[in-house]
Amino acid sequence: MKPVVPRVGRIYLLLTVVGITGALALACRAGLGAAETGVTLLPTLAPLYLAWAAFRTGRSDAAAGPGLEEVADQLARTVRLQWESEARVRRLDDPYPLPVAWRAAPAELVDSWALIRAAGERTTPGQGPGAPTAGDRDPAGWATDPTALAGADDQIGELFLAKVPARRLLVLGAPGAGKTMVLIRLLLLLTDRRVPGADPVPVLFSLASWNPVTHDLLTWMAERLATDYRGLADPAPDPAGTARTATAPATTRARALLEEAFILPLLDGLDELPPTSRALALDTINRAFPPGQGFVLSSRVEEYKQAVTPASGVPVKAARAAGIELLPLTPAAAAAYLRQDAGGENTASAARWDPVTTQLTAVGVDNPVNQVLRSPLALFLARTIYNPRPGEHSAALPDPGELRDRRRLSTPASLEQHLFDAFVPAAYRNRPENPCRWSAQQAEHTLLWLARHLRDTQRGTRDLAWWQLHRAAPPRMYRTVLAAIASFAAVLGAGPAGAATGPGVTVGAGLAAGFLGWRTGTMPRRLPAADFRWSATGFAQGALGAAAFGLVLVLSARADPTLGLLTGLCLGPVVGHALGRGVLALAVRETRSPDLASAAAPATLLRRDRRIFRRLLAEFGFGYGLAVGIVLPALLGTAPTGPVAGPMDSLVVRLVPLVLLVPAFSVSGASAYAAWGHFTLTRHYLALRHGIPRDLMAFLDDAHTARGVLRRAGAVYQFRHADLQDRLAHRTPGRGGCQALRR
């Protein structure tokens, strides 16, 4: 990279000198005034800025970047801060961590213990960051048989580090049993005990967005890392710690960390993949990680059992992974937790739970309360619905005794549905310390629509990404808006410019700009932008395309105004598309910043993408709009005569092509690299069409940080639990604010 960037800067500087020299020569020859000469020199500022940016980039890239060990250490600090914050938002330690226990997984779902021990014995100490150390390989510290894997609470760290020989762990559990909570605890414990520069960095990956049929696992994980953490999309350093040259393979830091085993993947939610792809996913996971590298995989028990023993095909298991199965909470632990969250023993709010806890802890009695309120998920829902928060009075809340209604809640399924249905209105109570901008009806309406959007438009994915929301709008909406902008510009240009050069030029240029917007308006960015740079090749192609486009229009107008109109109609799509392709050949990369100080939250990505969109909008319009609208007419001698012969009138008429070309051209060009344009138009459309809040990002952030309805998985939001999303997606909207949603 270092030898290339200064050369690009010199090319831009040469273009600046040539442009200034040519513009001054033509100004002197044509006898232009000072104002017109100044306008003619404006386009030379574009290559001058690009030259300065190229030299600045060259200086920053010339410094040797950090090695992979240092990058991993920075990432470890970021991951810990990220998940400590997420644990607080999810209230995992409020009022105290739930005492989740586990036992060994069923023998038919895991490899034999002899194979697991043999895999640990074959691992060479110090074989990469993911390998156990010599002390860890002491067989005396390993579990002697699967029954020794049983444990509870913070023993998950000791289990993984000391008792599991190959550091491969399978975490199974029933729906709502706390699998993700256990993985978060393990991640925090591992980052706390991590030896800098030696141990891998535990990173939690939600498998819900992975498609094992179309995406390689390492490629998908590298993409998620580059999106979630700033700096990991940068080129990776070579083994010596210096930056790679431009001719080296474009290996990102994220990919290098994975390939060198600096990442310990915690793969959450195998059960959230489609049933037909779970067996393939297991096989892909086994093949992606070499024998010396560990991983953690979580899944529901029944879904994993179906993946291990598919109806057709060869059975496949998580290779050499020890397995544990999470157990339901004990009735006494569940009852104590509900009372403590309500205010503690001997308080009036805790006494409201007495009828329920009596039924919960009844010995030998099988009832819906005893079966449902023993999972962490059910306890979270119940505490949100029935327990007061600071500033609330328990008398104003629903009575938890309604959970004992055997006529209305006669089965565990009906009780679970009741908790899910009552959760959203309870989460959006307008509490004194946390007022809500949206009513419970508005929030429920929006969440119902989002759940159905994920199910229908996003094919059942769990990831709610703002840059993919444009799929909820009509596919041609963006193209229509850009074409309307060009048409409006053509109407404006048919006035003063028509008196001088004929309406054919202005109308033809406006229609050609409309065609350009139509052709590029269906290219939304797949991922949000983080930064960009220009390339000499793309700049030259775009400049040549602009010159050809302007030349065709001007020459046709000088021959016949009607010919100008026909030329715009006929050649607009072809030349405009070629121009767009040339401009879109600009070299854009996700990020150039080495900063790993913070994980990329969805709102942070949106602000960064919006900043890039506005910068691209200005540079597209300035660099190419002025070149076509001012320089070419001046070079070809198309100064207006007749009724608009004054200097300022001449300037206005020469600016008309800028008005024609810039709106559609710059918006469509910027939208190919930044997703903010599509998202902005889509959220306004959804507000008008479906009643979704216009400030959608604020709503999603509030649903995550203040309401607990959503959780954050890197740069995307997800519903707090998959069952909550499924319940909302299949629920019939009620009255009083939850109008029927159009699918």
Brief summary of the model shown:
With 743 residues, the chain is mainly α. The chain is 54% helix and 6% strand.
Strand content: 5-15%
Structural class: mainly alpha
The total count of strands amounts to 9
Low-confidence stretches: 1-5, 124-128, 130-136, 240-249, 494-501, 555-594, 638-649, 735-743
Helix content: 40-55%
Q: Quaternary status of these chains?
A: single chain
Average the pLDDT over all residues and give the rounded result: 76
Distance between the termini: 49 Å
Largest sheet: 7 strands, mixed
**Overall geometry:** globular
Total DSSP helices: 28
Report on this structure:
With 743 residues, the protein is mainly α. Helix content is 54%, strand content 6%. The protein has 28 helices and nine strands. It has helices at residues 4-30, 34-41, 45-62, 68-89, 113-122, 155-163, 179-193, 217-228, 253-259, 278-288, 301-308, 331-341, 348-351, 354-360, 368-372, 376-386, 412-427, 440-456, 477-493, 496-501, 503-520, 536-559, 561-583, 602-635, 647-671, 676-690, 696-705, 722-730; strands spanning 101-104, 151-152, 168-173, 201-206, 263-268, 295-300, 322-326, 710-713, 716-719. The strands form two sheets. The protein has a seven-stranded mixed β-sheet. The chain has a two-stranded antiparallel ribbon with strand order 8-9. Helix 8 packs across helix 9. The radius of gyration is 31 Å and the shape is globular. It starts with a helix and ends in a 13-residue tail after the last helix.
